[in-house]
Amino acid sequence: MYRRSEPEGLGLRLERRHQRLRSGGGSLLDLVPAVTEEPAANEEAPAEAEDGTSAPVVDIPVPAHQARALEKQPSPVADFFPQLHLLGSIGVNDLIGWLRNGARWIVLALVLSVAAAFAYAVTATPRYTVYTDLVVDPSNLNVVSDDVFTTNPQRDAQLLEVESKLRILTSRNVLQRVIGEMRLADDPEFVRPTLLDWLKALIAPRDAEADKELAAMRALSERVEARREERSFVVILKVWSEEPAKAIALSDAIVEAFEAELFQSAAESAGRVAQNLNERLDELRRNVTEAEKRVEDFRRDNGLQSTNGELVSNQLSSELNTQVLDGQQRFIQAETRYRQMSAAVAEGQTASASVFESANMTNLRQQYNALQQQIGSMQLTYGERHPRLVAARSERTTLEAAMKDEARRILERAKADFDREQKALDALRGKADDEKSNVFTDNQAQVQLRDLERDARSKAAIYETHLARAQQITERQQIDTTNIRVISRALPPNARSWPPRTLILLIGGGLLGLAIGIAAALALGLWKFLRGKTHVAA
């Protein structure tokens, strides 16, 4: 039976908690101490039945731990939320009732969210995004056979190089070129003055142009994004702006600035190499000059003259040897002729010997032969004592004497030629012998000379190699070998990328407002329930 000192609600709560404990479905709410309420002074007595009798009293057994909990003092949370212990008894009907009671809040949140979405769709700054596809080939164009930069055929290294160039695409240097080319520092889309900037300028004056460029740099960096397609060298550049045409112009300007930055980077690297080579060339030039000077000084000190790569002494010795051979041949010819003439004179064959050759001798021989024919015919005609025959024979004797005299003169000339050739041969032999000793001396000196010449040639070869390489790299600075190709240029977008379409925003705003309204209605209903202003639906 109910005790008269317990409120009816408390007994019902104890009964329900007892039923939950017996069912084994306990919860944390069971640990919340029950609130002991004293009956009010004006509280009516228990209701009586219609027949005037009191209602039957039912005895409900109370567990020992609940009885001890009843004896404890109530907590502040339980005082503030008197029905906190009834959270587990909330059902679907309660939720539906809360939603029904908070219908006006749901409608209000829905209307406000849709209105906010519409206002945002109308007033939000649109964004137009364009995309540009580039192929960043890590292998540069092979313009020269031995370029300054080497290529690595390994794929991992190539991907790292592409990633490095991808970082350059969105680097500050590239963006700075775009800002200067398109004058973005003066574009209100990228540089928007605020009250905070005005206060900063008032407190600490700074360079306005630098601040504008920095603001434009920050704004542009937020609008540019680049990524590489997986397992490829294709890079996708993403750029957005408030105007479609400006987005396309920005994308094209970034690509051009990217190519210019790569070319400038390669040119600067080649320029540093060329500068180092040019600094080294001065020292190499001095080394070559000193080596060649040592060669010429040694050649002058030792009298080593060369023509067409051969020493003059060797050439002179060769020529003297040739002259000695010619002199020997002439000497032999003169000696042979002289001996033949001497033998012919001794044998009295001056008239018939062919060795005696001269114009006078030929004339005398002709006269002698004609006279000999006349004498023969006269002997047959006149006889041996005819005066004409005697005169002819006397003339023949005269011709024979003249021929002998001419032969002696020719023999003397031959003797003079023989002596002359012998002296010339002796002189040539003497010169050849002297020149041979000079040749030996020059050959020994030439050994040292060749060593000096080799040193000079090696230094000259190194100098010429560095000089040609420096000139080649200097010209290489003017050639763009970067292999960057645009395979898909930016096209005007069909629609804005942000904010979404108005219909989508309205639908999203409606759903969000509905969720907020439902949450607010449920929260308000739960608040009233915990405060004891409402009870659990039956």
From TrEMBL:
Positions with biased composition (Low complexity): 33-44
Keywords noted in UniProt: Cell membrane, Coiled coil, Membrane, Plasmid, Transmembrane, Transmembrane helix
InterPro entries in the record: Bact_polysacc_biosynth/exp (IPR050445), GNVR (IPR032807), LPS_length_determ_N (IPR003856)
Matches recorded under Pfam families: GNVR (PF13807), Wzz (PF02706)
Cellular localization per UniProt: Cell membrane
Residue intervals of the Tyrosine-protein kinase G-rich domain: 447-523
Transmembrane regions listed in the UniProt entry: 105-122, 503-527
Domain spans labelled Polysaccharide chain length determinant N-terminal: 90-181
Region (Disordered): 28-54
Record carries keyword Transmembrane: yes
Superkingdom per UniProt: Bacteria
A GO term for molecular function: protein tyrosine kinase activity
Cellular component annotations (GO), alphabetically ordered: plasma membrane
Membrane topology term: Multi-pass membrane protein
Coiled coil location: 267-301, 361-431
Name under which the protein is recorded: Probable exopolysaccharide transport protein
Organism, as annotated: Rhizobium meliloti (strain 1021)
